[in-house]
Amino acid sequence: MAEPVALGLTPISRADVVAVARDGVGVRLTDDALRAVARSREHIERLASRPEPTYGVSTGFGALAVRHIPPVRRTALQHAVVRSHAAGAGPEVEAEVVRGLMLLRLRTLAMGHSGVKTSTVEALAGMINAGIVPVVQEYGSLGCSGDLAPLSSIALALTGEGDVRVDGVLRPAADALREAGITPVSLAEKEGLALINGTDGMLGMLIMASADLRKLMKIADLTAAMTIEALLGTDRVFQAELHALRPHPGQGESARRMAEILADSEIVASHRGPDCTRVQDAYSMRCSPQVHGAALDTLTHAELVADRELASAVDNPVVLADGRVESNGNFHGAPIAYVLDFLAIPVADVASMAERRTDRMLDVSRSHGLPAFLADDPGVDSGHMIAHYTQAAVVAELKRLAVPASVDSIPTSAMQEDHVSMGWAAARKLRKAVDGLTTVLAIELLTAARALDLRAPLKPSTATAAAVAALRTRVPGPGPDRHLAPEIAAAEELIRSGGIK
């Protein structure tokens, strides 16, 4: 197992988030972090003893912030806010999303601006390291005032209430904490609010989706190149000189990759001579770097936003260096929500272009000598006809998922929270979109590999031949019709596992 991720006063990386959330890597709190947490707690305790009200310390929350809470009721207040806000509904979200939530909330707390006790951050770190995953449900966050219901479910488990999963098994939180040697937290002033007031869920999902998309864009360049090769297209449009005329970084990167993939293709070389009458390939082939590159540049922008968020202390109110406790609006999820929605657009468009290329390989009038639907005996066999239907259905769904969530807002909390980001919803649909793009590219991979096999005895490039060979360890080559669903699933798994790159 990798070394634990250190949580302190400096930002963690996106790779750290993926390691803890997805790969089960542990965490450790630095000495600097523990000192900063202790200092901020001293400020909260001093304010708690004063008669004047301080939001989150000696008042109610949201629309109830006008009520002053006497000292004897403040522990009850913090537990009450956690219980009442743990009001999620719907199916459980994935364990990696919950671990991301836990990590990113702990990261903010460890920066020393939230006023929690050191024992509280140590208990939360202990839960992460023990593999205790609180049950968090799909609905309950509007992406403003934090991912409230999801984070409240985690805070509830930290106090020994609610349910968790350990190694996938549902357990009462109290039992899981006891077996891990973790003392349930008794929440003091400000702590309940500090545990639930962050944009951690949407940020974690943005980071994991970005990591997945960074890999999928390489697959998109590969499958596009395979299709262009299979359709007797040209690689001349990927010359660096052409893309230097329009110097978008992503476009240049995509074109360079595609040129490298096709560099030694015998199939491409076979029709480079003066006898070739095809002047230009269709847009879905010729313009692949422009579309893939724009997607890459959008992804780079989203990663920049994620990096800024990883350097942020998202809480309300916050404890400043001089001890002041100030209300703020940094919990608003708009910066994250916008890029989550933004990414869903190129995901849909990259998938749409892959579907168009796949369709060309199956259409005997446009495939330049390939059999109809790449069938073994067209008419008796249907080949990849219905695999394309599946691909088209997924693309249609991706277009629906590209409709932004962040343009909506439903006022809540008696109009105190009168504009919300809907960033959690944007994150949830982006996760579905990433899965959909994987399916679309898997079907293009299956189809292009079959088409390249059918171009024999001409040989594909070294890179595309390696991709075909990797696929053939799981899916047999051309032949009579077979059950295709398992082959699509196998191609998806090959992509997800990194079996092709």
From TrEMBL:
The keyword Lyase appears for this protein: yes
Protein EC: 4.3.1.3
Subcellular location: Cytoplasm
Keyword Electron transport part of the UniProt annotation: no
InterPro entries documented for this protein: Aromatic_Lyase, Fumarase/histidase_N, HutH, L-Aspartase-like, Phe/His_NH3-lyase_AS
GO molecular function, one term: histidine ammonia-lyase activity
Catalytic activity: L-histidine = trans-urocanate + NH4(+)
Family annotation (PROSITE patterns): PAL_HISTIDASE
A Pfam family that the UniProt record links to this protein: Lyase_aromatic
UniProt main location, coarse: cytoplasm
Pathway: Amino-acid degradation; L-histidine degradation into L-glutamate; N-formimidoyl-L-glutamate from L-histidine: step 1/3
UniProt keyword list: Histidine metabolism, Lyase
SUPFAM superfamilies assigned: L-aspartase-like
Domain of life of the source: Bacteria
Family: Belongs to the PAL/histidase family.
Name of the featured protein: Histidine ammonia-lyase
Native organism: Kibdelosporangium philippinense
Lineage: Bacteria, Bacillati, Actinomycetota, Actinomycetes, Pseudonocardiales
Gene that this sequence comes from: hutH
